[in-house]
C-alpha cells in the first residue's frame, strides 16, 4: 500500500497545475466561441444579412446554439434560436418522414404506381406506359418537372392571399385538360433514368400522403412529428404558428436590403414548413439517430434506414448521376460534392441549411432571413463551413 502522506503531498502539489489546466481549457474554449461569433458577425455586416441563427449537433447532442442580428430590423427585435421562419426545401425532409410513416402503416408503397392512389391519372405523354412511383418522386427521378418561370411565379402568394388548393393545382398541372398543362411539365426520359430536381414532384407526393391518411399534412405532422418531438411552435402555414414569433423576411437587390411580405405556397409539401433552429434541431437529431429522439421513435429502424439509405448504386442510378458527387435518400440527399447529407433551402428572403457529415458525427443547422445577390451566394456556404469547423473543434475537445 502506498504511503498516504506521500499521496496527499503529491495531490497538493498537482492541484495548482490541474486548476491552471482547467482555466486554460476554459479560456481557449471561450476564445473559440468568441471567434465563431466574430466570423459570423463580420460576414453578416459585409453583405447585409439582417438576422440568422445556427445550431451545431455533435454525436446527436446539441453542442452549441445561438442567434445573431434581427428578426425585425426596424424594431430591433433579436433573431434568436426560437425565432420562427419558413425553411424552404428542408420541408421536403418532413414530407419524407410523413411518407415513410404512411409506408409503415401500409397506406402506400414506395414502388406502387402513383395512379393507384390518385383520383386522376398522371401520365408522362412521352412514356404513357411507364409507371411513376413514390420512390421516383422522392429521389427526383419521376420525369415530372417544374416549368419555369411559371412554377415559381404561380405558386407563391403574398400579403395574406390564400394559395390555390393543392389537389386542384396538381390536377391542373398534370391533366391534359388542365389550365396549367404543358408537355414541358414532363421530361423526355423514362421514370428512374434521369434525375431532375422537382418541387412539383414533392407536392404530388405530399398530396398522395394526404389522400391516403385522410389528413392534411399540417394536421398529420402535428400529431406524428411535432408533438412527439416537442416542436410546439412549428407548422405548415402562417395560421399554424404564432405570427409574433415569426421573423420578417428581407431581400438584397444591388446594395439595398429591403423587407418583403410574408408568403405561402400552393405546393407546401415542397417548401412551406415553418419552424425554429431550436425545434429543427430535435428533428435533425432524430433523423441522424435512426428515427429516435430521447424516448421517442418517429419511425421504426427499417423505415428510418430506408429514409436515409443511398438509393442509387452503380447498377441502379440515373444516367446523369455520378455517385462520387451525388446520391439520394427519400427526400434527402448528399450535398457539397457528396461530402454532406441532409437538405438545404432557398426561397425569397430565406436561406437554410440542415447538413451533417457522412459519419453523422457533426451536423449544422442555420437559418438566414435575408436572400442575397446571386454572386454572394457562396457566403452562405462560407458560414456553413465556419460552423462545421467549429463543430469539429467541439467534437475533438470532448
From TrEMBL:
What is one Pfam family matched by this protein? Beta-lactamase
Q: Which residues form the Beta-lactamase-related domain?
A: 36-373
**Source organism superkingdom:** Bacteria
The record lists the organism as Pedobacter insulae
Q: Which SUPFAM superfamilies match?
A: beta-lactamase/transpeptidase-like
Q: What is this protein called?
A: CubicO group peptidase, beta-lactamase class C family
Amino acid at each position: 500500500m502506498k504511503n498516504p502522506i506521500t499521496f496527499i503531498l503529491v495531490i497538493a502539489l498537482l492541484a495548482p497545475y490541474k486548476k491552471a489546466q482547467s482555466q486554460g481549457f476554459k479560456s481557449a474554449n471561450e476564445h473559440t466561441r468568441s471567434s465563431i461569433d466574430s466570423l459570423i458577425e463580420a460576414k453578416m455586416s459585409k453583405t447585409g444579412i439582417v438576422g440568422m441563427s445556427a445550431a451545431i449537433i455533435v454525436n446527436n447532442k446539441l453542442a452549441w446554439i445561438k442567434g445573431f442580428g434581427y428578426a425585425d430590423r426596424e424594431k430591433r427585435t433579436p433573431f434568436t434560436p426560437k425565432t420562427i421562419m419558413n425553411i424552404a426545401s428542408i420541408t421536403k425532409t418532413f414530407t419524407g418522414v410523413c411518407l415513410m410513416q404512411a409506408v409503415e402503416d401500409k397506406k402506400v408503397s414506395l414502388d406502387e404506381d402513383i395512379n393507384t392512389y390518385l383520383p386522376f391519372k398522371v401520365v408522362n405523354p412521352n412514356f404513357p406506359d411507364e409507371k411513376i412511383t413514390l420512390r421516383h418522386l422522392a429521389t427526383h427521378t419521376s420525369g415530372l418537372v417544374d416549368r419555369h418561370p411559371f412554377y415559381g411565379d404561380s405558386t407563391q402568394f403574398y400579403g395574406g392571399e390564400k394559395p390555390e388548393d393543392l389537389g386542384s393545382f396538381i390536377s391542373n398541372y398534370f391533366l391534359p385538360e388542365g389550365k396549367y398543362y404543358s408537355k414541358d411539365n414532363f421530361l423526355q426520359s423514362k421514370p428512374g433514368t434521369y434525375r431532375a430536381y422537382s418541387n412539383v414532384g414533392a407536392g404530388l407526393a405530399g398530396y398522395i400522403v394526404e389522400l391516403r391518411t385522410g389528413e392534411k399534412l399540417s394536421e398529420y405532422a402535428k400529431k406524428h412529428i411535432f408533438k412527439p418531438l416537442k416542436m410546439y411552435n412549428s407548422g405548415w402555414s402562417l395560421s399554424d404558428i404564432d405570427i409574433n414569433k415569426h421573423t420578417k423576411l428581407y431581400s438584397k437587390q444591388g446594395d439595398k436590403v429591403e423587407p418583403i411580405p410574408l408568403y405561402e405556397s400552393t405546393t407546401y409539401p415542397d417548401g412551406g414548413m415553418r419552424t425554429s433552429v431550436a425545434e429543427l434541431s430535435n428533428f435533425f437529431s432524430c433523423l441522424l439517430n435512426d428515427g429516435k429522439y430521447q424516448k421517442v421513435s418517429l419511425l421504426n429502424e427499417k423505415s428510418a434506414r430506408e429514409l436515409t439509405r443511398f438509393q442509387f448504386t452503380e447498377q441502379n442510378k440515373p444516367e446523369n448521376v455520378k455517385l462520387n458527387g451525388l446520391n439520394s435518400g427519400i427526400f434527402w440527399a448528399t450535398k457539397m460534392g457528396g461530402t454532406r447529407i441532409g437538405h438545404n433551402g432557398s426561397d425569397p428572403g430565406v436561406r437554410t441549411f440542415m447538413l451533417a457529415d457522412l459519419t453523422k458525427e457533426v451536423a449544422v443547422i442555420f437559418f438566414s432571413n435575408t436572400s442575397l445577390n446571386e454572386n454572394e451566394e457562396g457566403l452562405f456556404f462560407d458560414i456553413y463551413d465556419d460552423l462545421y469547423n467549429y463543430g469539429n473543434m467541439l467534437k475533438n475537445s470532448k
